[in-house]
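Mods, move this if it's the wrong board.
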Amino acid sequence: PLTDVTFYDDVNVFGGFRNAEDPDERFTQRVVHSNDAQYLTSLSNDGEDPTLRFEGVNFTLSGFAIMNVAGAVNETAGARTIVVGNGADVFLERNSISGSATALLSTAVAVEFGGGVALDRNFIDGGGFDAPISSSFGVKVDGSNAQLTNNIIRGGAARFVTGLDVKDASPIVVNNTIEAMSGASNLGGGEAVRLNYANPVFANNLVYTGEAKTQYALTCYGDVDDTAEFKNNLFAAFPGDTGHPLVIDCDTISYTAATPFVFPMGDAAVDANISYNASNDPLDLVARNGSYALVGEGVDDGIDVSGEEYGNVTEDFNGTARTGSYDIGAVEN
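Not the wrong board. Structure tokens:
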């Protein structure tokens, strides 16, 4: 194991290569997002926060399983897996990133003020566990430059969960699957996407919540200006018959499922979003067998996001080409 290692700048680190017994067969194959021991390349800490911190460096990390094992049941300080700090320019792609399963406050990826990150094709889970004051976050972006494409982002398993929390930033958020399913049935709260004075380009995302007593797929706090847009996203809450608001706009007005699904979001351009209210079971919307593929709704309902303004998205989470009519979410059917 490596401990107390410092990388300074312009470093690319890749994992997921085959670790065969025969030296001649090592590094001949690469499989990412695999739990198979011959491909699994793990990075974890030993009770410290965070597992990895990037500050003032250009860095690429690809193909790793990154975990935080810090935190006890009575810990309140929180535990973070990856922190992108001031002056960093980090590319995280095709990793599996997990928050602490034993901390009362857990965050998988935190991008701090002045940091920069591109997240592409990662599986991100906020971790956490059910307790009266437990909270978990998949990704937090605070006053930083961020681009999120083709990621599967789960808020975690705490009682209060948030998939994506954006504050004072204008990220590109395109073709992600963002989930906030509370660890406690009919207790706590779930926010899939929380915007606090944020101006994202938000397109082709699958956004849903479940289990919690209070649920919001998308909430706005503060203002959203005319540089932002919300286009061709699919919003859902489960169970579908409870009337949970899917969207809370910047004037605190709530919007439940409707056809067409129309809502304002400050001064942003809002168009062609979809609400789903046909089922009480998330499995009727998205497969939870590891694939996270759409079951039916949202297929071919996206827009072409291959342009630079949308992050040049031409492939999905699995590397499958996106052509013709794009699907909503991280996985192309």
